[in-house]
Amino acid sequence: xxxxxxxxxxxxxxxxxxxxxxxxxxxIDAKGAEGTDRPICWITSGGPVEFxxxxxxxxxxxxxxxxxxxxSKMGVELAEVAEGLGFSNDLCxxxxxxxxxAITHGGPIGGLPRPDFLLCCNNIxxxxxKWYEELARYFEVPMFLMDTPFMxxxxxxxxxxxxxxxxxxxxxxxxxxxxxxxxLERFAEVAMLSVEGIELWKEVLETAEYRPSPLxxxxxxxxxxxxxxxxxxxxxxxxYRLLKSxxxxxxxxxxxxxxxxxxxxxxxxxxxxxxxxxxxQLFARNNTCLVADxxxxxxxxxxxxxxxxxxxxxxxxxxxxxxxxxLMFEQLLALVSRFSADGVVMHSNRSCKPYSLGQYDLxxxxxxxxxxxxxxxxxxxxxxxxxxxxxxxxxxxxxxxSL
Amino acid sequence: MIDKDxxxxxxxxxxxxxxxxxxxxxxxxxxxxxxxxGKVMGFFCHYAPEEIIHAAGALPAxxxxxxxxxxxxxxxxxxxxxxxxxxxxxMALGGDLDFLDGTVFVHTCDTMQRLSDIWRLNAGYDVHLxxxxxxxxxxxSAWEYLCRELASFRERLGELVGPxxxxxxxTSIALYNRNRALLADxxxxxxxxxxxxxxxxxxxxxxxxxxxDKEEHxxxxxxxxxxxxxxxxxxxxxxxxxxxxxxxxxxxxxxxARPQAGEKVRLFGIGSVMDQWEFLAMVEDVGGTxxxxxxxxxxxxxxxxxxxxxxxxxxIARRIWDGVPCPCKHVTTRDRAELLLERITGSGAExxxxxxxxxxEPHAFDYxxxxxxxxxRGIPSLHLEIEQGSVSIPRxxxxxxxxxxxxxx
Lengths: 403, 409
Ligand code: SF4
Ligand code: SF4
Known about the structure:
The complex is a heterodimer.
Chain A: H1 16-32, E1 40-43, H2 50-54, E2 58-60, H3 62-71, H4 75-84, H5 93-104, E3 117-121, H6 127-139, E4 143-146, H7 157-178, H8 184-206, H9 217-223, H10 225-229, H11 234-253, E5 263-268, H12 276-285, E6 288-293, H13 308-317, H14 325-338, E7 343-349, H15 353-356, H16 359-370, E8 374-379, H17 389-402
Parallel strand pairs in A: 1-2, 1-3, 3-4, 5-6, 5-7, 7-8
Chain B: H1 4-23, H2 27-36, E1 40-43, H3 50-55, E2 59-62, H4 83-93, E3 102-106, H5 110-122, E4 127-131, H6 140-160, H7 166-192, H8 199-209, H9 214-231, H10 251-257, E5 265-270, H11 277-285, E6 288-293, H12 299-302, H13 312-322, H14 336-347, E7 351-357, H15 361-376, E8 381-386, H16 393-408
Parallel strand pairs in B: 1-2, 1-3, 3-4, 5-6, 5-7, 7-8
Helix pairs in contact in B: 1-8, 1-9, 4-5, 6-13, 7-9, 8-11, 11-16, 14-15
């Protein structure tokens, strides 16, 4: 998560240092747990981490690590390791580079600590299911698949029930593989902290409603790391309090994230990690702030404390990537109006089909409904081999010109 | 007693009918609709609960894309999407599927999931139904969910297409089981003597099953198989296997399956949709034959029997649950590579053809590990990645020839 230095026209966010420290400590702790009796579980970004935290299992996120590798421009070399084993270069680059890193211990932090078991939740994609099956074979460890039925139009009661029951199966799985007992009390505590963290994170993101905005989505991409990896812990709550107060004082002092903010745009899809700094500067130079995105809000879920399991099931099933294009459209539309955006930038990400297929339709729906323009740029989140910087720059500039 | 010429003439008739159908896949559905006034429901995936659609009085017709240069779907699907989705959508948008009253999407991969949305928003058919199958086919919660989702589908279909009563559903299940048994028999006969039917024709026969009314397909199959059995002149033990997946794998399969000298090289095909008839004809041409396969338009379509003496929804759930799993489904208790190895050795295949769509994630993720399992057993294989609409037979020919050479040593 080190890509923020030198985002020149930006005013540096002071809390960044605390965030980095938090993440460094987390990774040192997780890596130090390897080979001890503290269990480590690899989990997908949309997975119900609260169960792990409640059982003192250390969660490790290959996707967050993937973003790190991408931001350090090490994605390609790691992906090539997997390609050498026969994995097609059309597969999700997070998966490819993660498999590469597992084998070579490559990447900016020398790879992730070995998992004792895996928790895969397919609410973000079916890709993670296949990817984690490979990890399970490679590490010879058990895998739990939390299967969250995709929601096309209707939320069916039997789907919620299915996920709720799997929460219980997950508890049994964790008890078996940790030898520990699950405590509903402790779980409720963690869920409460999770909700609190998520609430604060939402409030941080909402500060971008102010004009000029105190933060851009490039900041959000960097500062989302704790809510993804450590939600449910008190440290996260503390951290987002700090970040929120910094954003509020920015608003008070009239500090804007980009100089002379003129245009406000929404970002769709995962960041282009290896290009984030350049893109951030490009938009800033053109007095354009990316005020919100569909990616960091994916974690803005509600968990109700009176029935944590059922609301957990609903929350995890209803996240952005697990709903149909028309339901996504409603959320996108809400972002456009809430953040008073002048248009949308879509990253058509060849790695991520559930995020990208449907964008062409979404784009025309946005323009039809709001009259606002949409720019689609073709890239890949961590594999830079197909990326054309000059082309993207020209298209972004032309787009802003047209606003 | 029929004489030999009569036998082959009859087979030729049946085959040319089925071949004509596969060449113009929707002629049957169009004619059926004209003839019966019934509804035609398109579907993409072999997991679709066809029996329920059939019991509602509609004709399920499988869409498998086609070899075409896309013109309209490019505005909806990026170029990094599999050609099955891209050409399928192109057919819909171009009006080639105008005979459809609706479509049933079954949850499998990320691409199909999004295609369902895009299809619903753009293709403009009256009925659009999703069957959100579980991603995993194991565990009590998944089993219960599967049954309830199928029951919910039955209800939704009942409202939009036609009511589905238990009696009709049981009749459909029996009809579909009969079809599976006959298809399994076709595979059994080909294992005994691949010469009875080249693989392009055999796979066409299977593909045709998903395009026409099962009763009619059963009749054609019976005729075809009867002719083949007669040609094998009494060598056939007769009788139909009741569990096609289990049959032919163990001892009996081994004995039947031993390749004879001078025969074509037996290959096993792995992939999703196999609709490249020219490719298969080329394989036959250069001296190979796909004796058995795991294509979802092939042996996986024949699947396993739906038990007939249980609740009909449970019966359909069982055949989805117990069948050889598609790589989209998570089943830890039955390792896919091991299942494939068993079937490959049971079929007497000497080599494997991976025939996969470019951009197909589920298959691409499984390839390295299945390939490794084959390597460890010394089974040579060839990995081909194709896109419908740009298949180059001459280029593929060289590669298939190289595989056959490796096998022949
Ligand atoms: S990038 Fe997309 S395909 Fe890859 S793991 Fe994330 S959600 Fe799944
Ligand atoms: S399983 Fe593969 S071929 Fe089938 S729709 Fe999905 S990506 Fe395409």
